[in-house]
Design goal:
Elements lengths: L4 E9 L7 E8 L2 E3 L9 E10 L1 E6 L3 E2 L2 E2 L2 H13 L2 E6 L17 E4 L4 E3 L9 E3 L4 H11 L3 E5 L1 E4 L4 E4 L3 H13 L3 E6 L5 H6 L4 E4 L7 H8 L2 E3 L2 H4 L2 H8 L4 H12 L1 H10 L19 H10 L4 H6 L3 H7 L12 E4 L15 E4 L2 E2 L2
Parallel strand pairs: 1-4, 5-8, 8-9, 10-11, 12-15, 15-16, 16-17
Antiparallel strand pairs: 1-2, 2-3, 4-18, 6-7, 13-14, 18-19, 19-20
Bound molecules: zinc ion.
Pfam family, one: Amidohydro_1
Protein name: Amidohydrolase
GO molecular function: hydrolase activity, acting on carbon-nitrogen (but not peptide) bonds
């Protein structure tokens, strides 16, 4: 770490409430301090509205449309996220070993969920460990040990015999698997587009559901009561009509189902939020979507009817607390993004960071 001290001034948004807004902070030895360091000579100044480094809670590093990618491609993905202000990623499943990124001070921090775990031939080829229900718990245990406190299941997918989305796992298997993950200290999340897998997963103790487009009026109170979070990935749900068009001829029931889920997506997210379900920002970058879309997802949550300050919190203060990582706290690693205008007034400000500071260093 260099001796240079960074002085961030303007409005430092350490929390959603006015009493957590400071006029300035200092970065010394890569860490945040709210006290001016004595005798600092080499001081660089950044001015504007500072937020904690943004969180993308559903992102895939080391993956593209065809499966695992070489390390130099993973590096580019991580750099694209970083330059968009995403400094903390919850990786929602990757077939690549990206552990080397942990040693790179210039790349975002990653919380991994290991590799996707799917039912045999019930997910995108090349992505997942594909197993049958009898092997689910042991596979979950392996990925729990490999990851950083999360495991990722594919909860539903098209069943080609049925011609529609359907749940991938019997209730007993997910119950056993989730209990095993919890025993090992890992939380569990699942990819779910449709309705029919959700009750079993929630009653089996799942911690989070990705996409959650299948949330219904009956299921929402259950999620709220159990405190199960959702990561809607609306920038990804925007692709449903295209997918539906592509599958129309062969799987008309599936296509119609995807279109229904798409059409009610904003109502679903708004109803979940209104019921008190924790909602977090995730882009689903890395499969078909490019990296760096975090600002677009925050804007989509606002479009769905989540108040701007709450949508901001879903990628900053609340998201970091949920993942057990600090924000702009005294002594925390200085991971922050500075904007020219107040992102609380208009979340579109997030699309153009003035400065990104990672581990105390101005990037780029
Ligand atoms: Zn994903």
């Amino acid at each position: 770490m260099s001796d240079q001290v960074l002085h961030v001034k303007g409005r430092v948004l350490a929390g959603p409430d006015e009493d957590r807004v400071h006029d300035e902070l200092w970065v010394v030895g890569g860490r945040i301090s709210y006290e001016r360091p004595p005798g600092a000579r080499d001081v660089a100044t950044v001015e504007g509205w500072a937020l904690p480094g943004l969180v993308d809670a559903h992102c895939h590093v080391g993956l593209d449309a065809h499966g695992p990618v070489p390390d130099d491609v993973s590096e580019k993905q991580a750099l694209t996220d970083r330059d968009a202000g995403t400094l903390l990623i919850r990786d929602a499943g990757s077939p690549s070993d990206t552990r080397w990124i942990d040693d790179r001070e210039d790349l975002p921090k990653i919380i991994r969920a290991g590799r996707h775990i799917a039912r045999t031939r019930r997910y995108i080829r090349g992505y997942a460990h594909e197993v049958e229900p009898a092997d689910l718990a042991s596979c979950v245990a392996r990925e729990a040990r490999r990851g950083d406190g999360w495991v990722k299941l594919v909860g539903d997918w098209i069943d080609r015999d049925l011609g529609d989305l359907s749940a991938c796992w019997p209730r007993g298997a997910v119950q056993e698997a989730i209990a095993e993950a919890h025993r090992l200290g890992a939380r569990v999340t699942a990819h779910c587009f449709a309705e029919d897998s959700l009750r079993d997963l929630v009653e089996a103790g799942i911690d989070c559901v990705e996409h959650a487009t299948g949330l219904t009026e009956e299921l929402i109170p259950l999620f709220a009561e159990r405190g199960v979070a959702i990561v809607p990935t609306l920038v990804n749900i925007a692709l449903f009509p295209r997918l539906a068009d592509g599958g129309e001829a062969k799987y008309p029931r599936w296509s119609a189902h995807m279109r229904r889920l798409y059409e009610r997506r904003y109502d679903t997210v708004r109803a979940a939020y209104d019921a008190g379900i924790p909602v977090y920002v995730g882009t689903d970058a890395g499969g078909t979507l490019p990296h760096g879309l975090v600002a677009g997802e925050v804007a989509e949550l606002v479009k769905a009817g989540i108040p701007p300050l709450e949508a901001l919190s879903a990628t900053t203060w609340a998201a970091r607390a949920w993942l057990g990582r600090p924000g702009l706290d005294e002594g925390a690693p200085a991971d922050l993004v500075v904007y020219e205008e107040d992102p609380r007034a208009d979340v579109r400000v997030l699309a153009a960071p003035r400065r990104v500071v990672l581990n105390g260093r101005i990037t780029g």
